[in-house]
Design a protein that fits this description.
Blueprint: H1 11-28, H2 30-48, H3 59-78, H4 81-85, H5 89-93
Length: 97
């Protein structure tokens, strides 16, 4: 569809990569929320035992994992776009000409 709307061959992979990144963000948000909910329960239980833990999230590890996911998502979405750009856009739309 992008080629039919006269997007250049450089714009198509960039847009495909840009469309994959929100999926990574949506996938990365529930993880910390679920972990925080679980840790809140454990923190409360330890508080009943008069133990005050100080949770320290591993931010560098979290950042590395999310970055790796973003890279792989962009690669997996842009890789099929390359061979698709070598053909005429009309042929993919089902119109024979």
């Amino acid at each position: 569809m992008l080629r039919l709307s006269e997007a250049t061959s450089g714009q198509v992979p960039r847009l495909v990569c840009a469309e994959s990144l929100p999926a990574v963000v949506v996938g990365a948000l529930p993880g910390p929320a679920v972990a925080a909910l679980d840790l809140a329960g454990m923190w409360t239980a330890l508080g009943l035992l008069s133990v005050r833990p100080a949770p320290v999230p591993p931010w560098p590890t979290i950042g590395a994992v999310v970055s790796a996911c973003a890279f792989l998502a962009a690669l997996a979405s842009a890789a099929p776009a390359g061979p698709a750009l070598r053909r005429r856009a009309v042929g993919h739309a089902g119109i024979r000409g």
